[in-house]
């Protein structure tokens, strides 16, 4: 199954759904930084959609040891910074994050999950 397709962003009508697909991962590199932190660069086969980026950020925040890390997507590359050095298994944790992101985006049955689209002008209650 080709998972390199990304989310279409235009031409959606109110109440429609948006299909999320996980881009294929080509390479993951872990690099120690001079400031004492660790950075991870993930190269993807295609640029991820915005919904995939949001799922990735949520999974990173929920992962023990990566709560303070941040991710940024730039084309086909994902940069994860703010990982504390000294913790062993950084590559393993990042691979688990990527697998969990893929699992949330593409369920076990192999079909992409539709992501509900909020109607234009809908308000979100931010006071939790």
Topology:
Blueprint: E1 17-19, E2 25-32, E3 37-44, H1 50-62, E4 70-74, E5 77-84, H2 90-105, E6 114-116
Antiparallel strand pairs: 1-6, 2-3, 3-5, 4-5
Structure description:
This protein has 128 residues and is of the alpha+beta class. The protein is built from two helices and six strands. It has helices spanning 50-62, 90-105; strands at residues 17-19, 25-32, 37-44, 70-74, 77-84, 114-116. The strands form two sheets. A four-stranded antiparallel beta sheet has the order 2-3-5-4, with helices on one face. Strands 1-6 form a two-stranded antiparallel ribbon. A hairpin with a 4-residue loop joins strand 2 (25-32) and strand 3 (37-44). The longest helix is centred in the C-terminal third of the chain and has 16 residues, at 90-105. The chain is globular and about 35 Å long. The termini are far apart.
The share of residues in extended strands comes to 25-35%
Helix tally? Answer: 2
- Biggest β-sheet: count, sense, barrel? 4 strands, antiparallel
Rounded mean pLDDT score? 75
Q: Tell me, briefly, the overall form.
A: globular
Can you list the strand order of the major beta sheet? Answer: 2-3-5-4
Low-confidence stretches: 1-18, 112-128
Question: Which class do the helix and strand fractions yield?
Answer: alpha+beta
Give the termini distance in whole angstroms: 40 Å
Summed up:
With 128 residues, this protein is of the alpha+beta class. The chain has helices spanning 50-62, 90-105; strands at 17-19, 25-32, 37-44, 70-74, 77-84, 114-116.
């Amino acid at each position: 199954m080709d998972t390199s397709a990304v989310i279409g962003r235009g031409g959606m009508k109110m109440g429609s759904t948006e299909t999320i697909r996980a881009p294929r991962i080509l390479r993951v590199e872990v690099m120690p930084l001079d400031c004492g932190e660790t950075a991870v660069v993930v190269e993807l086969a295609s640029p991820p959609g915005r919904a995939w980026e949001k799922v990735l950020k949520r999974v990173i925040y929920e992962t023990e040891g990566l709560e303070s890390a941040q991710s940024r997507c730039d084309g086909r590359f994902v940069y994860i910074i703010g990982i504390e050095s000294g913790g062993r298994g950084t590559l393993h944790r990042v691979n688990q994050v990527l697998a969990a992101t893929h699992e949330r985006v593409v369920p076990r049955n192999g079909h992409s999950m539709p992501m509900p689209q909020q109607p234009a002008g809908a308000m979100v209650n931010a006071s939790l």
